[in-house]
Every structure is written in C-alpha cells, then in structure tokens.
C-alpha cells in the first residue's frame, strides 16, 4: 500500500501546524529586538524606556502564548478527527483486501502493522515533514538575520549548530533495526496473550498455568533484551544531545561575550544573537534529528505495505453456477504435503459428504474453495471463476462457509441477523425457533455467551435462511442434540443447490447423494 493515499487527508493539518510554528519567527525576532532595546536603555539609565519596552515584550509574549494555545487546541482536535478518518479508510481498505491475505494474518500483526506502523507513518506527514520544513525556514531566516548583523557570528553559530548532526547519525542504523525487532516481539506477545484470553479456562483445567507463565516470561525476556538495548541507546543519545545542547548554550554565551568585549559586535547585536541562538540551534537539531525518524518511518511503511499486497487488476466476478472443480491442485505447509496434484469435480447439486482421517486436508479443501488460502499449483474454480476474482458480495449470499469454530460476537443473534439482513429476517428467526432457541437467547443473550450448541444453531439458521448457491458446512452437527440434527437434515433435503459437508457423524450417511474421501494428497470419489 502506498501511504500517499492518505496525504490528501493529512496535509491540511500538517500545513496548519507548519504555519503556526512559523509564526514564532516574527515573534522571536521582535522579542530579540525589544530585549536588545531594554539592555541598551538600561545601560543608558533610561528607566522609562526600559519599562515601556519591558511592557511591550511582556504583552507580545503573553498575547502570542494565548493565541498559540487556542490554535494548538483547535489543531489537535482537527488532527484527531483527521487521523480517525484515515484509520477508518485504512480498515476499510484492509477489509476489502483478498480473503487469503486476511486469513493468513494474525491479531498481533494486525495490531502492530495497522496501529503502530500506521501511527508512525502518519507522524511523518503530521510532524516530521512540517518539522523539517519549519526547521529549514527558521534556520535560514535566523542565519540571514544574524548575518546581517555580523557575518562572523552567523558562521560561528552555524558551525556550532552542525555539531548536533553527530548523535542522530551515530544511532541511525540502530533505530531501524530496533524498530523492526520491537514490533515483531510485540506482535508475538499480543498473539500469545490473545490466545490465552480465549483459553484461560482450558489452561486451568489442564494445569497449564506454569507452562503459560514460563512461555510468557520467555517472551518478556526477549522483549526486555531488545528494550534494554533500546533504552541504553536512547539514554546515550539523550545524554549526548544534552551535553551538546549545554555546550552550545554556554559556548554561545562565552563566544558572544568575547566578541562583544573585543568590539567585534555591538551590545545590542550580542543580545539579539543570544536571544535567537536557542531557537536557531533547535531548528537545526530538528532537521538533523529527523534522520532517525525518517529511517523508522521507512521501516513502518515497508511493514504496512506488506499487509496490503497489491493485487493484479482484475475484474471481480460473481459465480455463474454451482460447479466446483479442482484441477492439478498442490498445496504444502512447511514440510507437509496436503494435496499433490489433486483433481476433482463435484456435482452441481445435492448433498455431498467429505470424509477422511483427521489432518487429511478436509478443512483445507473448503478453505481453497472459499479462497481463504491459495494453492501452490493448479486451478480451483467455483461457479466458473477462480476464488481470487470473487466479487465483494460473494459471501454469504452466493457462497456460505460455516467453519467448525463458530464466531463469538459480542451482540445478540437478533442484532447479528439485522446487520446482515436489515429488517427482513423473519425466515432466519423462524429457523432459530425451529431449532429450539427462545426469545431470551435471541434478543437478550450475546452470541459469545451462548453454549456451543446454541451458537451452532444461530449460524446454521443463518446459513439455511440465506440459501446460497454453494453451502460449505464443516462438522455442522458438533454440539447439536438429536432433535436439532433431524431438523438440520430436513432443511438440507429441501435445498436444490450444492451442499458440501465435512463430517464424521453417521447421521448424514443415509441422506447424502455423493460421498468423497480426502486421503493421500487427493480427493477421491467414494462411490456411495
């Protein structure tokens, strides 16, 4: 993903920030002039003029601070609103990506890449670019202003300011490496904690607490090792920056004082130089410190772009029929071959059972058909098209895939149905009631709080009500009681389209139209 797609949204805030920062230039120049006047008036013993200039300086600085505070508040509100809009667009693009790309990711990567990496990339537009531009303009303006007063002083200040290039250049390579390592280990921690969140009770039941804590400690030790290295480097850089800043500050005082005593610069010029030197050094430091930030941002954008792999431009299509064909399909996971040049053509209607030993590849077959994973070789065709060109509305209307594990949404079944159907979901409610779910379970209980059998009924009711052209059911009778199994079979027998069922349950044996077996890297016709 090219991050430039967000620049149009963010550049307005960035420009406003730059303009607000640039207002400090005339304010600082006026302040320096007034302070120089105060020193000269004080030297001449002109008390009245000192008081007038002092009052003018106080009013200028107070008025500027009030104005700046109001503008900063409004700018921050605009910044937050714009960032939220960009994040919404980011997630919209993310969810519009290929199903295979979404399925291959994990929560830790999503958190790190879609949140931290995005924030780092956005910061380049909102802070780094404006900071560099403002720093260059401030540095150039102050150099010209000081050079107009004394070329020698301007050159000396510039040489001193360039010393600040040392810390960021020394740490540039480290920050790039540390950013990647930190994001990766934080992704692992996020995944590990998320997995435990879904299985805390299991950890307790099998007395796996010590195992979990030891694994968590191991991850934290790795994180701490990377973090400690970062802390040492950050501390060293901060100390070096502080040392350089202190040396520049007092060195400038000494040099300007020496030049004033030698008569090379006048008293008022010396005061103005001292007044502006801090801002001048800060502007130069901002420019050079951006070296490490640009490096980190580049790494963040590279990681973010990996999540949004650009697909070749193809026309998205709907399926035209219920043909499902695999031709010469091969797929391997690491060292395990799941399918080896497998070919099969399923019928266009009826109930087809998919059987095979655990781990043979039955669920993988469904994921290939649904486009959740891609074959290493061969062609998968569903309804006349390959899964990589499925249109946006293919699920769940055309193809409905119900995996073994049901989603545990934190909303009621009725609200869930309304999200999919709008207000027209009478058919699905009828089916849920036929499965034995009551008003409390439909209206007042979250799906995540239902029992396994109740959740299965919620999603089976939806699958049957949608009545898709191709229905993929993976172990649909898990957790179902006998009456619900009979109800499911009655509804499936009414379908005139294709139904593929992965099951070990013999309840389907007498009602299926076709039988297939997954074994030894292929899919065989079981010849029912």
Description:
This protein is an alpha/beta fold. Helices cover 64% and strands 11% of the residues. It is built from 16 helices and nine strands. It has helices at residues 7-22, 24-44, 47-95, 99-104, 107-149, 151-162, 166-197, 200-205, 209-261, 267-307, 362-370, 413-421, 426-434, 439-444, 452-466, 482-494; strands at residues 324-333, 336-346, 350-355, 377-382, 399-402, 470-474, 498-502, 514-519, 522-525. Strands 5-6-7-3-8-9 form a six-stranded mixed beta sheet, sandwiched between helices. Strands 2-1-4 form a three-stranded antiparallel beta sheet, covered by helices on one side. It is elongated, with a radius of gyration of 34 Å. 30% of the residues are buried. The model has no long low-confidence stretch (mean pLDDT 83).
Between the first and last Cα atoms, what is the distance in angstroms?
49 Å
Low-pLDDT windows of residues: none
Helix share bin: 55-70%
- How many strand segments? 9
- Return the average pLDDT rounded to an integer: 83
Overall radius of gyration? 34 Å
| Helix-strand sequence | HHHHHHHHHHEEEHEEHHHHEHEEE
Instruction: Please state the overall shape, judged from the principal axes of the Cα atoms.
Output: elongated
Structural class: alpha/beta
The DSSP helix count reads 16
Strand content: 5-15%
Largest sheet at a glance?
A: 6 strands, mixed
- Spatial arrangement of strands, main beta sheet: 5-6-7-3-8-9
């Amino acid at each position: 993903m090219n991050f430039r797609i967000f620049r149009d949204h963010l550049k307005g805030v960035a420009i406003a920030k730059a303009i607000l920062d640039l207002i400090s230039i005339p304010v600082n120049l006026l302040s320096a002039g007034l302070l120089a006047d105060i020193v000269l008036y004080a030297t001449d013993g002109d008390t009245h003029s000192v008081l007038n200039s002092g009052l003018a300086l106080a009013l200028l600085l107070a008025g500027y601070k009030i104005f700046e505070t109001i503008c900063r508040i409004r700018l921050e509100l605009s910044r937050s609103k714009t960032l939220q809009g960009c994040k919404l667009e980011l997630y919209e693009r993310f969810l519009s990506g290929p199903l295979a790309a979404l399925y291959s990711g994990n929560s830790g990567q999503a958190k790190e890449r879609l949140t931290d990496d995005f924030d780092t990339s956005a910061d380049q537009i909102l802070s780094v670019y404006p900071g560099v531009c403002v720093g260059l303009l401030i540095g150039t303006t102050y150099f010209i202003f000081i050079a107009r007063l004394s070329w020698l002083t301007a050159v000396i200040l510039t040489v001193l300011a360039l010393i600040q290039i040392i810390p960021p250049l020394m740490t540039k390579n480290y920050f790039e490496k540390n950013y990647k390592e930190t994001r990766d280990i934080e992704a692992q921690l996020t995944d590990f904690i998320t997995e435990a969140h879904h299985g805390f009770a299991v950890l307790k039941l099998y007395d796996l607490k010590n195992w979990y804590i030891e694994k968590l400690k191991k991850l934290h030790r790795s994180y701490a090792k990377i973090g400690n290295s970062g802390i040492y480097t950050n501390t060293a850089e901060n100390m070096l920056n502080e040392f350089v800043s202190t040396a520049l500050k007092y060195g400038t005082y000494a040099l300007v004082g020496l030049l004033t005593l030698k008569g090379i610069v006048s008293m008022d010029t010396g005061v103005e130089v001292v007044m502006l030197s801090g801002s001048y050094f800060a502007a130069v430091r901002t420019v050079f410190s951006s070296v490490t930030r640009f490096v980190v941002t580049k790494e963040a954008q590279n990681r973010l772009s990996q999540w949004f792999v650009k697909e070749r431009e193809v026309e998205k299509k709907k399926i035209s029929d219920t043909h499902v064909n695999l031709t010469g399909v091969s797929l391997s996971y690491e060292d395990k071959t799941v399918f080896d040049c497998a070919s099969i053509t399923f019928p266009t209607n009826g109930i087809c059972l998919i059987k095979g030993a655990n781990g043979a590849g039955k669920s993988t077959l469904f994921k290939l058909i649904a486009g959740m994973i891609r074959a290493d070789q061969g062609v998968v065709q569903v309804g006349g098209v390959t899964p990589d060109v499925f249109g946006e509305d293919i699920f769940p209307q055309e193809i409905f895939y119900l995996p073994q594990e049901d989603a545990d949404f934190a909303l009621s079944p009725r609200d869930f149905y309304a999200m999919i159907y709008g207000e027209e979901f009478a058919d699905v409610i009828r089916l849920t009631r036929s499965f034995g779910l009551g008003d409390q379970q439909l209206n007042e209980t979250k799906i995540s709080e239902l029992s396994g059998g109740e959740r299965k009924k919620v999603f089976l009711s939806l699958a049957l009500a949608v009545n898709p052209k191709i229905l993929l059911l993976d172990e649909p009778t898990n957790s179902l009681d006998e009456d619900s199994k009979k109800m499911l079979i009655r509804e499936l027998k009414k379908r005139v389209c294709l139904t593929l069922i992965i099951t070990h349950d013999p309840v389907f044996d007498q009602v299926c139209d076709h039988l297939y077996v997954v074994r030894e890297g292929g899919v065989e016709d079981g010849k029912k």
